[in-house]
Amino acid sequence: MNKKKREELLLEAIEARKNAYVPYSHFRVGAALLAKNGKIYRGCNIENAAFGSTMCAERTAFFKALSEGEREFEAIAIVGGPEGGDLRPICDPCGNCRQVMAEFCGGGFEIIFGSSKKDLSVYTLEQLLPLRFKL
Ligand code: THU
Questions:
Q1: What is the mean pLDDT of residues 83-96?
Q2: Would residue 58 show up in a list of annotated catalytic residues for this protein?
Q3: Mutate-to-test residue for ligand 1 from 19, 25, 54, 56, highest number of ligand atoms within 8 A of CB
Q4: Which of 51, 94, 97 maximizes ligand 1 atoms within 8 Å of its Cβ, making it the mutation to test the pocket?
Q5: What is the side-by-side strand order in the sheet with 40-44?
Q6: Are 57 and 64 in contact (CB under 8 A)?
Q7: For residue 63, what pLDDT band results from cuts at 50, 70 and 90?
Q8: 43 confidence band (pLDDT: 50, 70, 90)
Q9: Which of 2, 58, 104, 112 has CB atoms 3.0–4.6 Å from 97's, for a disulfide?
Q10: Res 132: pLDDT
């Protein structure tokens, strides 16, 4: 994936983060998932008073796409940071989100982080979850 497309996806994740519902943690996360057909699905974290019912931004994006019939994915951009504060240079996904990625994506799937276009960094799913459980 080229640099410009990665930057575009990062900006989509920054936009997605604006809709985060975070009255408990005050930590806002945004994600933008690129399907192989070029469509982008945005996600944000959505918290709940029963904390375990909270949904992460990454899985929101995946489940939106999957429920629309998408099955092939190229990359996801993820941004996060405290409400009213700076974005983290790397807001790495939790284990549950990595496992969902592993269900639908190969080792070459790209995970893009950054607080702006200037400090963007790219990892593969292979790097973030080297031994992936599958049936
Ligand atoms: N969060 C995500 O959205 N993605 C992750 O991969 C890690 C954590 C959210 C969940 C919760 O709303 C907040 O960040 C603090 O844990």
A1: 98
A2: yes
A3: 56
A4: 94
A5: 40-44, 27-35, 73-82, 110-113, 121-124
A6: no
A7: very high
A8: very high
A9: 58
A10: 96
Residue type, 65: A
Name the one residue in this structure whose structure tokens are 């409400």.
83
- pLDDT value, residue 85: 98
Q: What domains can be seen in the chain, in order of their start residue?
A: 3-128 (3.40.140.10)
Percent of the chain predicted with pLDDT > 90: 100
